[in-house]
Amino acid sequence: MSSFKKKKSINWTRKIIAIVIISTLCVHLAGCGEATDKTAKSIQLETLKTVTVWYTNDKYTPYLEYVAKQVNQANNLIEIKPQLMDSENYLENIYNSSIHGSDAPDVYIMSADQLEKANMMGLVLKNNTYAAYYNEKNFSKAAIEAATFDNDLYGYPLSFNIPFMVYNKDVAPKVSTFDELYQYSLNYKIDDKNANIKQIFDWDVSNMFINYCFSCDSIDIGGETGDDVSSLNVNKEILKKAMEQYFKQKEQFGIVRGTNVIDDTSTKFAEGTMAYTITDVNHLKEIDSSSVSYEIIKVPKLAQDLDTSLMSENMDVFVSPYADDIEVAKAVAHCLSYDYADTMFDKTGLLCAKNSVSKDKNAKDNNNKDVVYQLFNDSRCQAQFMGQTYYYSRYEIMLHKVWDGQDITTAVDTFAADFTSQKQ
């Protein structure tokens, strides 16, 4: 065969291979788009349906606008109308606007800890049309529990928050106990690598949510599922041991309550001037966008026999019984919770409740997100019954008393007595 024929044959072979690759890629991309948009496309409509979505956190705005655009492109007879509302008297405003028909929401985003109240006000419909998607394959146990009340699924899990420790891998070692962290601080030596570090460790010791982990599984508010109002218990022996170790950190690290809130400590870590801190999902984007090489770990043990216990906050989408078109409203809620959830972090800096980690192998935060989702899966959701905030506020008061040097036995006994009095 002549060299000209060989070149011609090779060129055609290359063209055929390229066509096959491009065709395969197009089919794959088309399949991905179809999977994403299938909920909106599956809704058969004859006239335009506008779905009003209320929310109170402006961080969700880019995500809601994105989903609104995607859904409308998939089905031009569905129009999502996001409305940012005041958080004060949120449920009452939903109720009043629904009763009086004044631009009421069809769908709304709300903290799952308000579920019983919303249910008693007649403002939630069960998540039954898409219930098959809401299982522990697609969502963590905590997310499902938070969306469930009295064994009925109502919510469409949207996002979550959970505390964790971060450390600067370039200057500090991974730790599993607070004693290890303290020993590191005692042997700390300044060198070229850690020259920018101004403080080894600090965290917001006044924040109830961040510090709930130091209860070390000694407190039961709402039982395993968070909705059992009869399940209110305190193991005073364990809690006293935990508080003793908690106060010990004040002495060891010289932390003054009220000096630094979580925004401050997270920013200092992101700036590379702090080696360790305890932060949460709401501050992950700031840290991830920084130049700090970091790793996420569970908040360390207070002692070898005192493991920290995590509580998660959950934000869910709910469908109003007053929705103009209930089936379309349910479809939009599902789109927000499930179909487009993978874009949540990029759009908002928040993590979606759906088990979703970036597939970009070069992204520095992949392993860290895996850790956060595992911590979320192992967490207990914040209780959803009415009046639960009372117990969390009493825990916060107890923490402040302990940190400020009041007698630990007295502080814990007073806190436990609140549980006993409410049960009677």
Quick structural summary:
The chain has 15 helices and 15 strands. With 424 residues, the chain is α/β, with parallel strands linked by helices.
Order of helices and strands: HEHEHEHHEEEEHEHEEHHEHEEHHEHEHH
Radius of gyration in whole Å, from Cα?
25 Å
- Discrete helix count: 15
Structural class: alpha/beta
Total beta strand runs = 15
Biggest pleated-sheet summary:
7 strands, mixed
Low-confidence stretches: 1-34, 358-362
Percent of residues in helical segments? 40-55%
Strand content: 15-25%
User: Given the C-alpha coordinates, what overall shape results?
Assistant: globular
Report the span from N to C terminus. 97 Å
What is the mean predicted local confidence, pLDDT?
90
Report on this model:
The chain is α/β, with parallel strands linked by helices and 424 residues long. Helix content is 44%, strand content 16%. It has 15 helices and 15 strands. It has helices at residues 3-42, 61-74, 90-100, 115-120, 141-146, 178-186, 208-211, 236-253, 262-270, 284-288, 326-339, 344-348, 366-378, 388-403, 408-423; strands spanning 49-55, 78-84, 107-111, 148-149, 152-153, 156-161, 163-168, 199-202, 219-221, 232-234, 274-280, 294-297, 311-319, 351-352, 380-381. Strands 1, 2, 3, 6, 13, 14 and 15 form a seven-stranded mixed sheet that branches. A four-stranded mixed sheet has the order 8-11-7-12. A two-stranded antiparallel ribbon has the order 4-5. Helix 1 (3-42) packs across helix 2 (61-74), helix 1 crosses helix 11 and helix 14 runs antiparallel to helix 15 (408-423). The longest helix is centred in the first third of the chain and has 40 residues, at 3-42. The model is unreliable at 1-34 and 358-362 (pLDDT under 50).
